[in-house]
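Q:
Got a chain?
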Amino acid sequence: MSEEVKKVKEPSIDYETQAIIPDGKIADYITGQWLQESEQENVRQNFERTLTEEYNYLKEDIRIDLKIKVWNGSKQQIKKVPLAVLKEGTEDPFILILVANPKTEPASKKNGTDELEQWLVDVPSAEFGCWTNGVETLYFQKKKTKFETDVFPVNDFPRKGEDDSSIYTTDRRRLRIATGNNLLYAFKRCHDYIHANQGGSKEQIFWEFLKILFAKIEDETHGGRPRFAIRSAEERNDPDGRKEVKDRIESLFKEVKQRKEFAGLFEAQASGILFNAETVSYIVSQLEKYDFIHSSVDVKGVAYETIVGPTLEGTKGEFFTPRNVVKMTVKMLDPEPGARIYDPACGTGGFIVIAFNYISEKLRQKHKANWANPNKPTEAEEKALFEEIHEAGKNIFGTDFNSNLVKAAQMNMIMNNDGRGGLFAVNSLKAPNQWPKEVQEKIQLGSMDFVMANPPFGAKIKIDSVEILEQYDLAHSWSKTNDGRWQMEANLKNAMEPEVLFVERCVNFLKPGTGQLGIVLPDSILSNPGYAYVRYWILQNCQVLASVDLPVETFLPRTGTQTSVLILRRKSEQEKLMESMSGEMVPYKIFMANVKKVGKDRRGNIIYKKDEKGREIVNRALYKTFAESTILDFLPTVETTGRIVDDELPKVAAEYLKHKEAKKDE
């Protein structure tokens, strides 16, 4: 068997157009000028992106460090507003935005909300204000009467072309796609508010928050006036108004529980929503503006993992698979709509969510070619697309032993516009004929086009059940023959690492001859002498299409286990018979990659591309390409400042697909 080591190039990056970042500087998203980098400046850069991508303001509508005159006693003094949005066709500020350091509190004397309110009073043209430290964001409106000026909290400020009647969510057209870290920060604000004002155990808080997320998605699936909304200032600020908000959310949650696909999902939880009206209305105020169904899988996934992770991750060898590893694996497998896809250790749904979005985007591009307006489908056109997406989603399945993780995965799929139930809480290592009948009908051995998995691994969680072990070749003892081959013995081992059993189980779920597996495995299986028989079994039963060696940073700081991604094709019985008769395997090429950079260091901090002298490089023009890309492209992450995350996994996926195409021509 020959091996082919690929030297890969970065997709969609022109290094000749890149500039060197001066030490300690950052390129402003609006003006392009170099600014001193700081935590506060990074907050401003994210908000500048928000103004253009979520609020639709043009860069020419926005000013940075705008000078205004404010009163200090009997004297006026000049202040700089970090961000301001101008009234159309004028140089008069309409929205004033105070960007504070992440450690600054709203009540702080310096750079707090009191200072922003003073600016609003003193600047005649300003009608709205916003205070943000990157984690918390507060909005204010100014109303001026003949005798006084009133500044009061509101839910939002208008988007471009809107008036002040639009700041409450009374129309579905006002829902907007979340960008950057905005949904992540909204989730964090909700999380912090709940812990400070409601209390409860981590798990109880998680499930109560999940109820409200289900209500949000339920509301987005309906037409008419939004119910997951703050409709007036009274609903935001008054006890009676907050009660009306909670009543609507309770009503939405009752509809969720009546859906057949969610039967039993909340059976272990209280029948209603336990959060008080103040907490519910706060959560609604933070999430109502966002269009969950249409926001990107990455924006939703990162936000959701911040809530799921501290509650459910890592108790039994379970860890989130890094999103770039999942996206690389899915792109290498390249599933088509209609393919049967399965993850037998689905956890919170990382692989199946990305796979579902991958095939959904393929369907979107197919439909988009026939839309009257390719950038905005009609209601009928989008309905037709969603029907086909939901139909394709019926072929995606996930199982996990941990029922809480399965429930979390269901929410993850639902947030990504998948409204049916293909997820089940069963032990994937048990004999499938012992599973509930409903699961047996949908998931059978030898029935999957693709299996994707990051099974739990570790010596501390060995499987010792004879009932489970006796199903597996790899749970038996193996001995080496005189001719260097391996043969299985009759006796069972006392216990086995789960990752070894998952290798065999995943392969056996594939369709013989065509089914492909993408699996994350500890490197010990691929290199330790004690696992030589496992490698022999893999080569006897599969064609190794690719092996991607990942650096130790991949799963750090959670675990330092060194891992690889294997892409395998299950051999047909005829192939195995022919090889057995000939006594040798047909030689073939294997795509191999040794990855050095995955976009972060050992502490989880982002790392950026540098030149040969170790200086960061920047290309602001690349951000637009990255922002407009889809999950099918899987480009290297580019920040608004033009910094490029140093991650080699996108180029691995791109080169593997080229490798596959080249093999077709051989």
In short: Residues 239-258 form the longest helix (20 residues). The chain has four domains: 30-167, 182-287, 324-594, 604-664. Residues 1-16 have pLDDT under 50 and may be disordered.
